[in-house]
Amino acid sequence: MTDAEREELRRHGILLTSLEELYNWGRSNSIWPLQFGLACCAIEMIAAATARFDIARFGAEIFRPSPRQADLMIVSGTVTKKMAPLVVRLWNQMPEPKYCIAMGACAISGGPFKQGYNVLKGIDRYIPVDIYIPGCPPRPEALLHGLTQLQAKIRGEHLAGPDQAQHLRPANPGELPIPDYGAHDLEPPHNPARFSPPSLPRKA
Amino acid sequence: MSDHPHAFLALFLGVALAFPLLLLSVTWLWVRFFQSARPGPIKNATYECGLAPTGDSWIQFKAHYYLYAILFLIFDVEILFLLPFAVAFTGLSSGALITMLVFILLLAEGLVWAWARGHLEWK
C-alpha cells in the first residue's frame, strides 16, 4: 500500500498504520535537544522554551545537559573556529539517530561575521545539518517551525529499503573527523565527505 | 483453572515474569536490527563539555577533606545551638547554664582532640 492510498483511507476514517510509522511518530514527538548555545540565537532558543512560545507543545522541551541523552543539536549562534572542534566532539558523543538544526545565519554560513578570520562559514562543513533556519536571529516561532519540519522529516524516514534512514546505513561513519587548531586555520578546513567548497576558476 | 486457593499466585508469577521478559526481548530485537550503537573512541570519551579529555576519569579525592568538612559542620551547628541560649540567657535557670557548660565542654574536648591529632592542619 502506498502512502497516498493510506492517506486516502484516512480521509474516509479508516486508520491503517505500520510499525515504522508508529516508531517514527513516537520519535518525532519526543525529541530531546542538547542544551547548549553559542550566541544571540541561543537567547531566542531559550525564549522558545519559555511559557510564551512553549516548545513543550512539540514534545521537545527536555533540553539535555549531556550529549549522551540528546538526539537533536541546535547549533544556535556564531560558530567560531575556536568552538568548532568542541561542537563536532559534542556531536560525535550524541547517540544515533541524531539530528542537527542550524539556527540562524551564522550557523548556516557565518552570517554577518562571515568575513571574520575567526568565524566558521557554516557548521555544515563538519556536521550533517538537517534543517536550516534563516534569520539573524530567527524568532522563536522560526525555531518551532524548524522543529516541526524536522518532525516531518523524522516521520518520513524508513527503516529498510533503498531510502533507508542515514543512521541505519552501516557504511555511514559513526564519528566525524574533529578539526584541529592548525598554525593558521582549522585542519582540515572542512570535512570532505560533508562539504566541498566551490571552486572559482579565475580568468587569466 | 485449578481449584487450589493459591493457584492465582502462579498466574501472577507467570505474568510478572513474562511481561518484562517480553519487553526486554522486543527491545533487544529492535536494537539488533534497527538501532546502531556505533561506539567509538570519541563517543566513549570521558568529558561532555566538548573539550578533549585530559587525564583519567577516576579521580582520588583526599579522605582528609571529608574529616575537615565534618569538623566544620560540627562547630557550625554548635553556633546554631548557642544562639538561642544566648538570646534567652537572662530568663534561664542555673540548670540550663550547667547543661550548656557540659555541651560546650564536650565540644571543646572534640576541638582539643582534633587539634592534637593534627586534623585541623591541611595536608
TrEMBL record, chain B:
Keywords: Membrane, NAD, Oxidoreductase, Quinone, Transmembrane, Transmembrane helix, Transport. One of its GO terms (molecular function) is oxidoreductase activity. Pfam families: Oxidored_q4. It is found in: Cell membrane; Membrane. It is a multi-pass membrane protein. InterPro entries: NADH_UbQ/plastoQ_OxRdtase_su3, NDAH_ubi_oxred_su3_sf. Its EC number is 7.1.1.-. GO terms for cellular component: NADH dehydrogenase complex; plasma membrane. It catalyses: a quinone + NADH + 5 H(+)(in) = a quinol + NAD(+) + 4 H(+)(out). The chain crosses the membrane at residues 6-31, 65-89, 95-116. It is an enzyme of class 7 (translocase). Its main location: membrane. Belongs to the complex I subunit 3 family. NDH-1 shuttles electrons from NADH, via FMN and iron-sulfur (Fe-S) centers, to quinones in the respiratory chain. This is NADH-quinone oxidoreductase subunit. It comes from Lacunisphaera limnophila.
